[in-house]
Structures
1.
Amino acid sequence: MSGRNTFYTTTPIYYVNDVPHIGHAYATLACDVMARFKRLDGFDVHFLTGTDEHGQKVEKAAAAAGMSPQAFTDKVSQSFHDLLGVMNYSPDNFIRTTEKRHYASCQALWEKLVASGDIYLGKYAGWYSVRDEAFYAEDETTVGPDGKRRAGPVNNEVEWVEEPSYFFKLSAWGDRLLEFYEKNPRFIAPESRRNEIISFVKGGLQDLSVSRTSFSWGVPVPGDPKHIMYVWLDALTNYITECGYPDESNPLWRFWPADVHVVGKDIIRFHCVYWPAFLMSAGVAPPKRVFASGWWTTEGQKISKSLGNAIDPIAVTNEFGVDPVRYFLLREVPFGNDGDFQRRALIGRLNADLANAYGNLCQRVLSIVAKNCGSVVPPKGALTDEDKALLGRAQGLLATVRAEIDEQAFHRALTAIWEVIADANRYVDAQAPWALAKTDPARRDTVMWVLAETIRRVTLLVQPFMPDSASKILEQLAVPQEARAYTAFDQELVPGTALPKPQGVFPRYVEPTKAAS
Ligand code: ME8
């Protein structure tokens, strides 16, 4: 074992009832940035994503597609797997709940819950939303003008269900959950979600139905296979299946408890109430943190299949490039808030932040170095206060970005980095190296060294967000692979190092002109 600090982050596992859209790409992006940052920062990282393949919703979607559930899930799961390449994600594994090891893990957890005395057989009579795969109390539902009863975060339809069911004694866990939230103030973020969960638990918990008998696509209950485990009990367990549960001698068990489960705001009740209660009942430590991301709309509208307005990650990255889309998603909206995906805003950021600010800084600096400094890292003379100020701000960025990443405040990390980029652009204008070429070439060289060194530091921090673009820029600064981790953050550029020919990394986006008139 490595002896390094571990970091384990997970995405929600995606239902395979539909193909992925930008909303699905979002949680995985946040995890990817954290995983990449932590790897560069010396952590022993495990990053997990995957697909949630059981339950009534998936069974119905398979039937509607005229396919067997297994063939259907194989097909749709592949489209989520393909998304990893499309968005340049770097998970360590992709889990599917139809894997054998996952059945074993769910059944082992079930047996622990039984042994704890938290499972009993009864009969469920109440409301169920197949879309949410969630049970709702009568007072959580409302009947709309169309006469349909609805409930839940997106007001999906519910149906009446009456069937034999095993229950988990969730009602007995309220006080222990409240105590757990109290002792672990970082467990639920952002703060508004924490308040929402605490008041839900304070309102009193009902026992939770954890098996169904009206369909068969799922993990059978040990010893009573007519019962299929509730899909959320099955799905949540994926996070420990990955670590080898119940075999705590599995080397991957070192990653449990997870550092951050990233989830959508619609599924926090499952992650912040049910999941820690199941784990505590089974004698397993709950995760350290659950961060709830907001939801994307597109051009002001809810993303919906019927409107056909879902942003397809393949189409949008083909048009704008992977890195600009990654940047936009995390820069445009504070993580945790809802956001509106507007094409105009994406183009605005691409041109202003990437092409004009960052791209132009790299381009100006690297082309002067290539043309006027002999294509090598220029010599560094005595530093002025202005030089030291800029270098100091770039140096201070690592601590700032590290702290923001630990809060999942990606937009603030990016804002801090772009402030230094703006400082560097102002410094170029103020120092006017093109004028120094005639009056004081040695000073010009120092200015160019300060700029190249600032770009190096900034770009080391851009790596987790825009890996390919950062890599191209670091290549142009001849920063070798082994000097790109944060242990090498203070390893300055060495004057005289030969540099390759510079090339633009962030072209401006120009709307394709309408057919020539
Ligand atoms: O909930 N914007 O799966 P899922 C942002 N299988 N995020 C969005 C979004 C949008 N427009 N639409 C969906 C499930 N999401 C369960 C998870 S975890 C043990 C099981 C997010 O495919 C949504 O909030 O319905 C959720 O976090 C994720 O996509 C997966 O949704």
Note: The chain has two domains: 6-293, 343-488.
2.
Amino acid sequence: MLTPNMNYSHLKNSYLFYNIAQKTKDHLSAHPDTHLYRMGIGDVSLPLCDAVIKGLHTAADDQANASTFNGYMPECGAEFLRKAVAEYYQGRGVELADDEVFISSGASDELGDILDIFDRSNRSLIIEPAYPAYVDANVMSGREIVHMPSSRENGFLPLPDENTDAELIYLCSPNNPTGAVFDREQLKKWVDYANAHGSVILFDAAYEAFIEDDALPHSIFEIEGARTCAVEICSLSKTAGFTGTRLGYTVIPKELVRCGMRFNDMWVRNRTTKTNGVSYIIQRAAAEVFTPEGQRQIHENIAIYKNNARTLMQALDSLGIWYTGGRNAPYIWLECPNGMGSWEFFDLLLNKAQIIGTPGEGFGKCGEGYFRFSTFGSPEDTRIAAERLIELLK
Ligand code: PLP
């Protein structure tokens, strides 16, 4: 008889977004005319910028003519886009060969798929609270997870110590859910650990475009030594509003080698076997993001989300509530006031202020007592939500 992948039976049910949806639905059926201030989910609200829309139209027209039509795209990405991404890195002093950049249809896909090139016996270190897909992808593939809790004491940015022991290390900076960002010295400690132990860092840079402090690194490859120990996974989802359009990229340096196996070559083999590339139309549109005009336009949108963050941070400051994130990330991670639990605070905000956020406990046990606000909502809703917060908690 066929045996299913029994690892799936070890997955914990994800109550987080289900519970939020259920509680929201119940609230709306009891109060049908209420407007809810939604600062829960991490999806963008602004449309694609003009440069990308023009790129989409032009590329669609290309597909209408035999002379410009594209069939299968190269599995690892179109040359024009790999080059555009490499040049983007060069802009901040990181030299990459075009074929060290792999185009994907998003970071989520890559975060799970990349596990294919690492032996199942490797243990995966996951800093918690964490983006839930890290844990689930590892459980599905039957890997041992080393949970590394973080806390307010270390600013939710833990560093390796004498007890750290794992072959694969997930780092997410700027972080979802905490919005915390590793500085250069902190990342160097992780890079040194990985090189000393032969580990590999999977660096999730999905929110790099939100960094505004010049001193903070956008990429792990800004850190000396990272080329021999890191893979970087990035996405245009939040950078350029591609959550529904889908495009990401993964960087695997050629110096990343273990047991004589080069991970870049392995990933070429993997992609050429398991994918047929990302749509021409989407890749063309994505290339517009990396033009000077595209960069200007996406940063106009990011500035709107950053303003939302400032509005909420001012409210929290005035209430004396501790938080991290917001400045270099689209998330604000706050301590629930008066020692409240995450879900208790969720209920209070929903029932008394019609605000929806995300209970920290949903991102791992050490998130209990914390709460995440996403800043991807409309400025108007965010402004009113901030006023309501102050009114409720002052
Ligand atoms: N990584 C982090 C930390 C995220 O928060 C998200 C999405 O919310 C992703 C990856 C997934 O991004 P994508 O839309 O490219 O799959």
Note: The domain at 11-48+294-393 is CATH 3.90.1150.10 (Aspartate Aminotransferase, domain 1).
